[in-house]
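REVIEWER CHECKLIST
Item 1: Sequence provided? yes
Item 2: Single chain? yes
Item 3: Sequence as submitted:
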Amino acid sequence: MTQGPPTPPPTSTTEIQDQVRDAVLDGSSDRPAERAHSPPLSVPTMDTYQQAFPNIYELAIQRDFSEVVRYSETIDLKNPRSPSRLLLIVPLALSYLILDNPTLAQLAVARLPENSRFHPLTRTLGNLVASASGHQYAQVYAHAEIMCSLTQQPESANDDLANLITNLVTLFVELFRRKTFTLLSRAFSSIETTQAQIYLGLSREQPLTATSGAWQYDSTSDVLYPPGKNNTSLRMNLSAPSCLDIFDSVAGDLIKLESGL
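Item 4: Structure as written out by the authors:
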């Protein structure tokens, strides 16, 4: 009996993606080179997490983040190795950040299955959570911007998840900036505009707009003053020899103040 010709290797983008996806689901894609080509956010079959995602989406859009956490924690771990688990973990981690609980956000990110941790989106989520937990103010804004840009990439196959991530990250940054502004107002009797830019993640002109009506600006010294500030115990040393020294001093004082809240 004459055998037919051998099956040709996959050549199209769809065929290659299918082959990678099958390898990941079989647990056979372990080499770093293969991990770099992570599967897209969507998976071909419905499971627990895909069925739960519409409810998570609606709760998050309604900004009922306590309920997002409760509902997500209730149904998690039913299929922990599923690549679609990120449909639950990503909104859960971002909800914890919005609720100002970065420690639980870190624990949520740690639950991601191995085959999802190397996706650029989930990797950036981990960096965002770590920055928020470590009080790395400037890095928080940078990773948030990267995460939002990743949702616009073609590999973000789940449009609802991409839209939800954009909304949640935007809200988190708004709340994080507002909290930081409050901390700066409480901690310092004055702060250089360049330092305010770093801590608020704003451009040269934006800090002045953001503080208009709440802070006074001295154009001669390029310094911002919160109104009616009498506490000088944490006053910033504007004559310090190094901007890095100033930055470290501000960071230390903010962390101390935030720990006491």
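Item 5: Key structural point noted by reviewer: The CA atoms of residues 236 and 249 lie 8 Å apart.
Item 6: Recommendation: ____
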